[in-house]
Amino acid sequence: MAQQSHSVTTLPSAKPSPKTPKSVPKLAGGWPLIGHLPEFLKNPVSMLSRGWHEQGELFRFRIGPRNFVLFTGPEAHDFYFRAPEDQLNAKDVYQFTVPIFGRGVAYDISPELMAEQLGFLYPALRESAMRRFARIMFEETSRFTDGLGEAGVIDLPHAMNELTVKIASRCLIGEEVRDQVDTGFAEAYHDLQNGINTLGFFLPRLPTAAHRTRDQARQKVAELFSRVMTERRRSGVRPDDFMQTLMHARYKDGRALSHDEITGILLTVLFAGQHTSAVLATWTALELIRAPSYLARIRSEMQDVYQENADMSHSSLKQQVLLEHAVRECERLHPPLILLIRKVLKPLHYGDYIVPAGTLAMVSPAVSHRLPHLFADPERFFPERFAPPASEDKQHHYTLIGFGGGKHRCMGKHFAYQQLKAIWTVLLDRFDFQFDTAFPAPNYGSWVTGPEEPCRLRYQRRSRAGIFR
C-alpha cells in the first residue's frame, strides 16, 4: 500500500461567521418521540459514520428528548477541546460517576477544584515513578504467566482485566491494596465497574439491584482504603505511591484531604486508566494474532532490545517502537471510549453554524480515527502508519484522540502505553497464541467498548528459552 507523507499542520479554531448563523445540519432518519435511538442502540459508530458521510464535520441528531451534535475531524476537535468550561461542560454529563467516585471529587465539584485535585498526582507520574512501575508491570505479568501452566485456554477480556487491576492497584494505590485484590478488592471493584451502564447514565440514583450492589461496593472500597491510611499514619510507613502522595497533599487554602476525598480521587484515577487499559490490551492481542508477519517483527525487536540486558525497564520498553505502534493502531481502530460528551452551557458558534445551549456535544474517536482523508486504508490494521515517513498521527495534534484532549486529556496515557507493552512483551516471550473463538465484534452495550463474548485464546508455552532470566 502506498503511504502518504504528511507534514505537521496547525489548524485554526473556527471563528464566528459574519453571516447569520445557521442551524447545524440534521441527520436523516429518526422516529417521532424516540428520534435516532433504535439505530444508535444497534450500532452507534455506524450511525455516526453515516452522519459524517452525509453531512460532514458537524451534524445533529436526537435520542429521545435529548439533542446531540457530533464534531468530527481535527479542526472540529481543536475547537471542541479548547472551548472553555463555562461553554462546554463535562460535569453535567458525567453525574452518573458520582455514586462511584463519591462526593467532593471529580464531577461533583467545580472544574477548578477538580484540576487542583488531579494536579496532586502529576508528580507521582514522573519518570522516576515510571521506572519503578516498569519493574512492577514485569513482576505482575510474570506472576500471572506462572499460573497458566504449559497450555490451555484463557478468557482474554477477563484475564486482561484481572492483570491490569493487579498492576494498577500496586502501582497507583499501594502494596496493601494489591495484597487484598484476591480477598475482596477485585470483587468490589468489579461491582463498581458494573455500575457504569446505560441506565445509570440517565438515572444514576435509580434503586436497581445493580446500583445497590454498586453502592455497597463503594462502601467496601472506602473502608478498605481508610484502614490502609489509618495504619500508615499509625506506623509511620510512607510508601512512594498515589495514596501517600494524596495523604501529604494540601489544597491551596492549606486544608488536608479527607479519607473519602482520597478514596474518590484514587477511584477516579483507577477507573480512568485500568478499565480502558484492559480493553486496549485485549484488542492489541486480537489484532496481533491475526497479523502474524507483524507479530514476528515484534518478537524480533524484543530479541534486539533484550539481547544485551535481559531486564525489562522503562528504558527498554521505550525502545520497543514496533510494539508501541501496534498499541497505537489498536487505539485508533478500537478506542475504548467511542464517545466523549460535553453539555453546551452557552451557544457555540462554529463556522457558519450555531449549537444552542442545552445540546449535548460529542466527539467520537471511533468515527474520527477512520476518516479516509487522514488515514490511508483506514479499516486495515497497519501499525506502520505511525512510523516515518507516513506518521499519519502527526498531521494535527488532534488526529488521534483515544485519550481525549484539552484539559480532560487522560493523564495516564504514557502509563497505559508502558503497561500494555510490558504485558505483551512478557506474554509473547512465554507463549504462542491462537484463536479459540472467532474474531469478535465490538460490544457497544458497554460504556467502555471491549469485544463481544465469548472471546477466548488458546495458548502453548514456547519450547525455547525466553529472553528474560
What is the N-to-C order of secondary-structure elements (H for helix, E for strand)? Answer: EHHEEHEHHHEHHHHHHHHHHEEEEHHEE
At the third CATH level, what is the topology name?
A: Cytochrome p450
User: Which CATH-level-2 architecture?
Assistant: Orthogonal Bundle
Q: Tell me how many strands there are.
A: 11
- Oligomeric state, counting identical vs distinct chains: single chain
Global structural class: alpha+beta
Number of discrete helical segments: 18
What fraction of the residues are assigned to beta strands by DSSP?
5-15%
* Uncertain runs: 1-13
3D shape? globular
Q: Mean pLDDT, nearest integer?
A: 89
- How many domains in all? 1
Termini gap: 40 Å
CATH superfamily: Cytochrome P450
Please state the CA-atom Rg, rounded to the nearest Å.
Answer: 23 Å
Largest sheet: 5 strands, mixed
In the sheet with the most strands, the strands line up as: 2-3-9-6-4
CATH class: Mainly Alpha
Walk me through this protein's architecture.
With 469 residues, the protein is α+β, with helices and mostly antiparallel strands. The protein has one domain: Cytochrome p450 (Orthogonal Bundle). The strands form 3 sheets. A 5-stranded mixed sheet has the order 2-3-9-6-4. A 3-stranded mixed sheet has the order 1-8-7, with no helix packed on it. Strands 5-11-10 form a 3-stranded antiparallel sheet.
Offer a few descriptive terms.
469 residues; alpha+beta; Cytochrome p450; globular; disordered N terminus
